[in-house]
Each structure stands twice: as C-alpha cells, then as structure tokens.
Specification:
The protein is built from 14 helices and twelve strands. The chain is an alpha/beta fold and 338 residues long. It has a seven-stranded mixed beta sheet with strand order 2-8-7-6-5-3-4, with helices on both faces. Strands 9-10-12 form a three-stranded antiparallel beta sheet, with helices on one face. Strands 1-11 form a two-stranded parallel sheet. 49% of the residues are buried. The structure holds pyridoxal-5'-phosphate. Its EC number is 4.1.2.5.
C-alpha cells in the first residue's frame, strides 16, 4: 500500500462516498436546478453562519470569484506575502480581476501585523489620494501552513479592516482543520469574515470542489463571476454529493490526521540528520541535509512512500494514511540514515 504524504489533495473517494455520488439527484446547476448542489451550498452557509453559499470547481476559482465580488477594477487587497491567494494562484486577482495586490510580510504564525495592515491602507479621495489604488479588502488564510490563527488576532484584524471601511475574506481551504483543532464551531471560525472559501478536496476527502459562503448580495456577484470564469457546471450534484458526504462523515476524523502528524513529527525528531521545523494540525515541516534529499526521496519512492524531500520538506496527513503508514514512513527514513 502506498503512503502518500505529498498533500491532503491526493485522497481517493471512499466506497461509501462513491455510493453517495452514484445515488445523487442532479439537475442543471447553471439553471439553478440541481437539488444536491443547492443542499450543499445551504448546508455549509448555515453552519458557517452566513446567508448563502456557492459551489465552485476549485479553491483557486472560489478565492478569485470572491476577490472579484469584493473589488472593482483598480481596487486593492491586502494579503500575506506567502498567502495561497497571492503566491500560488498565478496572480489571478491581478491578471483576471484587475485587482492590485498589496502584499504584507507574514509573521511565522501566519498573521499579518495590525500596525502593518493599518499603515498599508491608502487614503483615497481628492488631492493626493487620487494617486492611490482604493484599498477595499483584507484577505487572510486559516489554517496557514497547518497553523491555526489565534481567534483574538482574527477578531482584531477583521475589526480593524471593517473600521477602516474594508471588507474581509478568509481563504479557509483547511478551516475545518482549525475547527477540529480548537474545538470551535465553523460559524465561530468564520466570524468577522464577509466571505470564506472552504475546500472539500483537501482533508475532507472529496474529489473536487470548494464552497464560498457570504452574504446574499456578495454570493450573487460571485455567482456571476463564476460563470464568467468558466466555473458554471451542469449536473454537478454528483460532485456536491461527495461534499455532503464529507461534511457528515469526514470532519471529526480530521483529529486522526492531527494525531498522525504529531506521531510523524515525534518520529522524525528522533531521527539523526533530520530537524523538525514545526508541526501543526495535519502538517509537518522538516529539514534534511541537501546531499540526502534526492537519494532519500528515491529510497522512499521505491518502498511506495511518496513525499517531496527538499531541504525544507512538508508532509501532510489525510484520510488515506493511518498510524501504520506513518510508522512505515518513519522506519524507512530511519533505515535510510542507518
Ligand atoms: C489548496 C488551497 C487552495 C485552493 O486550491 P485548489 O487546488 O485550487 O482547490 C487555496 N488556498 C489554500 C491555502 C490551499 O491550500
């Protein structure tokens, strides 16, 4: 059996999830006719404490549709230098949305310092202010490299943004990992955010899809942008059914992924030549000596153990990896260095 720690996106639908997909009632969602998509959107909006939801094919498109719903051409958004939205989405906000990113250096815990946020907000208006892009939006990410952002920080940052007339967006690709790790509700984790993008295709184990939640007017705008961006899908209830199944069966078990990541971190910490840089929720970061990276990766791959071994490696646990797989992984790395 392969143990794949490259990402939590590599999961295959379980037999029961496939069964739920097969049985899904579907319609043409571009016409608003797909009952399963509507059910998924409503269910996530309700538990996130928002008015409406929108099912999109990817988290990238969900973030982009949200940014375009919040910002007009020439508006600016504040975002982490290391945020997925800024760094890993091809610059879509600028390329397709005509939105100017204002990156802010992330703290190691993923937060953006309040004083830096405050200083980056431009004063738009007559006179000098006409020089600037209009700062419209603050975008944060939770979890960030697996780390759960402190509730107090999220509250302070979103309050600051709202006080200064900005809207707020959360890239909550893995927000359910935060929910499970801190024992909160989804609504609590989404508090203070005008929109939240949630991935179903990461730790939740669905094959495809993200849901954007927010107010009705905002989701209506995002709905139009989804169509423009090519994300209007037809009988997508087959995919939404996987998401609904995941919401019911795959949330509490994220705690197992967190336990397995802790096991992996402990095992690596106990291995010569390996330095654990950190671990949080379902991620572990570790340093390997340069000269060992390529040979170690080949050694692991030959044994059906998949990971990207770099000087700063990331390992991600998920529902297709169990405690035994983690033990095999640790033992193989120990064998290599022995
Ligand atoms: C995976 C991910 C996304 C969206 O990715 P897609 O592959 O487009 O679904 C967005 N933000 C973060 C933090 C992610 O990890």
């Amino acid at each position: 059996m392969t143990v794949d720690l490259r990402s939590d996106t590599v999961t295959r639908p379980t037999p029961a999830m496939r069964e739920a997909m097969l049985r899904a009632e579907v319609g043409d969602d571009v016409w608003g006719d797909d009952p399963t998509v509507l059910e998924l959107q409503d269910a996530l909006a309700l538990s996130a404490g928002k008015e409406a939801g929108l099912f999109l094919p990817t988290g990238t498109q969900s973030n982009l549709a949200a940014l375009m719903a919040h910002c007009e051409r020439g508006d600016e958004y504040l975002v982490g230098q290391l945020a997925h939205t800024y760094k890993y989405e091809g610059g879509g906000a600028a390329v397709l949305g005509s939105i100017v990113p204002q990156p802010i250096e992330n703290e190691p815990d993923g937060s953006l310092p309040l004083e830096k946020l405050a200083a980056a907000i431009k004063h738009y208006g007559p006179g000098l202010g006409a020089h600037f892009a209009r700062t419209r939006l603050l975008a944060l990410e939770n979890t960030f490299n697996g780390q759960v952002l402190p509730r107090g920080y999220l509250q302070a940052a979103t309050e600051l943004a709202h006080h200064r007339g900005l809207a707020t967006h959360l890239d909550g690709a893995r927000v359910f990992n935060a929910v499970v790790a801190q024992g909160s509700t989804l609504a609590e984790a989404c508090e203070g955010f005008d929109s939240v993008s949630i991935c179903l295709s990461k730790g939740l184990g669905a094959p495809v899809g993200s849901v954007l939640v927010g107010s009705k007017p905002l989701i209506e705008k995002a709905y139009r942008w989804r169509k423009v961006l090519g994300g209007g899908m037809r009988q997508s209830g087959f995919l939404a059914a996987a998401g609904l199944y995941a919401l019911e069966h795959h949330i509490e078990r994220l705690a197992d992924d967190h336990t397995n990541a802790a096991r992996l971190a402990a095992g690596l910490a106990d291995t010569p030549h390996v330095t654990v840089l950190g671990h949080a929720t379902n991620m572990v970061f570790a340093r390997f000596p340069d000269e060992h990276c390529a040979p170690l990766q080949a050694f692991l791959n030959e044994r059906g153990l998949l990971a990207l071994i770099t000087p700063e490696s990331r390992f991600v646990t998920h529902l297709d990896v169990d405690a035994e797989g983690i033990a095999r992984f640790i033992n193989a790395i120990k064998d290599y260095f022995a």
